[in-house]
Amino acid sequence: MLAETVCSAVSAAGLGIAAVTAYRKRFLTALRTAAYSLIPLGLVMTGAVGWLAGTAFSPLAWAGFGVLGASWALFALVRAVEHRRGTRTARVTATDGPAAPVSPSASAPALGRKTGEGSRPAPAPPASQSSQSSPDDFSDIEAILKKHGI
């Protein structure tokens, strides 16, 4: 009788913790806690804690199996929601296998000169015939082009 009382108290405490967790809007954790806390109550109700003769036909025992089934259903619900959200993807098992190999050049940054069309300098606009440029004007442009490696 003491074992049944202890298991019932543990289940009640677990359900209380689950309620507080649900109040904090951590619903998946609350459902998981509720599922764990129903296990001792289900074991007491099935008679596994203090097995007596005639327990197999007891309505209380079958109700305990129902509680264990509800606990299992809560576990399954939590796993399904986590699988759908992808929140447990950080846990990688050995059966998942290695990740797909990536070529070393795939993630290397492109260094050096660009070969695309955007890397060529824009052609200078044609000089109007009314303004005559002196050779000194072109030396400034040549210096700028040499500075940029063109």
Describe the structure.
The chain is mostly helical and 150 residues long. Helices cover 55% and strands 0% of the residues. It has four helices and no strands. It has helices at residues 2-23, 27-46, 59-85, 135-147. Helix 1 (2-23) packs antiparallel against helix 2 and helix 2 packs antiparallel against helix 3. The protein is rod-shaped and about 110 Å long. It starts with a helix and ends with a helix. The model has no long low-confidence stretch (mean pLDDT 76).
Task: Outline the fold blueprint.
Elements: H1 2-23, H2 27-46, H3 59-85, H4 135-147
Summed up:
With 150 residues, the protein is an all-alpha fold. The chain has helices at residues 2-23, 27-46, 59-85, 135-147.
Distinct helical segment count: 4
Q: What shape does the CA trace take?
A: rod-shaped
Number of strands: 0
Query: Which stretches are low in confidence, meaning pLDDT under 50 for 5 or more residues running?
Result: none
Major sheet: size, sense and barrel closure? none
Question: What portion of residues belong to β-strands?
Answer: under 5%
Class computed from helices, strands and strand pairing: mainly alpha
Residue share in helices?
40-55%
Tell me the series of helices and strands, N- to C-terminal: HHHH
Distance between the termini: 93 Å
Q: Please state the average pLDDT score.
A: 76
Rg: 37 Å
